[in-house]
Amino acid sequence: MQNGAMKAWLDSSYLAGANQSYIEQLYEDYLTDPGSVEDSWRSIFQQLPTAGVKPDQLHSQTREYFRRLAKDSARYNGSINDPDTDAKQVKVLQLINAFRFRGHQHANLDPLGLWKQDAVPDLDPAYHNLTEADFQETFNVGSFAIGKDTMKLADLYEALKQTYCGSIGAEYMHITNTEEKRWIQQRIESVVGHASFSSDEKRRFLNELTAAEGLERYLGAKFPGRSASPLKAGTRWCRCSKRWCVTPARTARAKSCWAWPTAAA
């Protein structure tokens, strides 16, 4: 037993830790030129599994690569975030949300300028601790659907005012259906509050509004004393008046039947 154990130890003594560097160098020499090592070592290296395995790389080159990587301090610079910048980014997103919630309260709905608007503090960048120096900085705009991922704060602030504080006030953040809310956001923010209609579409809108107003005036004169403010119903009244006026004209035998509401109703 002792002789067998000694023989096994002698047969594997070359694998001792002290010989690691020597064997590793031999293996690298074998990878570079198999004929440069002794036949006994070449026979051992040839017995290593190679089927379906990529050839070994030189370990000295791998170690040198990681040594250079550890000394390269530039690779750490891009992953460090400035806490102050992150805080400013949060403030910018809060400013965008403030315009979505309260921008309609500061919309320009009085072309004559007779109505004095109350100040809305949430719409002031200073309310969110954003300074004049921040106006030249670039921030992520989040879900603001303007077609850009980042903008200067000065440009973003102007876009928000044009979108939510122009001649149209958009109040929709109370809607509980997220899909409907995003649908409205996409359409008013993508055009910065200025919908682009063709000349033909604008003329059609004018004709329908004129026809609806004419019908309202006629009904008011025909039935005095009745409630007469249907245009306040907006597009629904315009659609009804269009159907009443156009459909009977296209079908001669069609008759329009409607009931005018009483004042009590």
TrEMBL record:
Give the InterPro entries listed for this entry.
Answer: 2-oxogl_dehyd_N, 2oxoglutarate_DH_E1, THDP-binding
Keywords, A to Z, come to: Oxidoreductase, Thiamine pyrophosphate
Q: Name one GO cellular component term.
A: oxoglutarate dehydrogenase complex
A Gene Ontology BP annotation from the UniProt entry: tricarboxylic acid cycle
Function of the protein: E1 component of the 2-oxoglutarate dehydrogenase (OGDH) complex which catalyzes the decarboxylation of 2-oxoglutarate, the first step in the conversion of 2-oxoglutarate to succinyl-CoA and CO(2).
Similarity-based family: Belongs to the alpha-ketoglutarate dehydrogenase family.
Under which name does UniProt file this protein?
2-oxoglutarate dehydrogenase E1 component
Q: Which organism is it from?
A: Serratia rubidaea
